[in-house]
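Chain A, query sequence.
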Amino acid sequence: MLIKVTRPRSDIVGVMKRTATTIIEVLAILFVVGLAAVVAIPEQDIEESKLQQKALISALEQVRTAIDRYWGEHGAAYPSYDELSALEVTTKVARGEGSLGNYLNRLPDNPYCENNVVGDSDTPIGETAWIYDASTGTFKANDSVDHRKL
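Chain A, predicted structure.
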């Protein structure tokens, strides 16, 4: 003999599975994703700024080292402004004639203005990428007041 076990109707309704996603759940997910994007975007800008800063410091160190080597090998004389200017360096080195050719193949670009133009110490900020004072051998960035202090 078979015994039929039945459940009360109230149990059957409570067991039904929900398969659709509600609009509230979708909005909650969008909110969390949006919040993560708001936090991540400024972090990316900060990282990019740090990379530019490191590239600027590296370029300054590279040129300053070349100037120091020149000074040491030329009887305590700094390279002239003309010798250090970007056009002079790149054209003379390309022909193998540059007096800075042994120290610096090419003047690096300033990562904040993406050029390598050199001005003298009286050049207004932002007009050239770099400034150079041949009397003291001082080489600085010229894209902003803060970077001129590096």
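The chain has one domain: 25-148. Confidence is low (pLDDT under 50) at residues 86-98.
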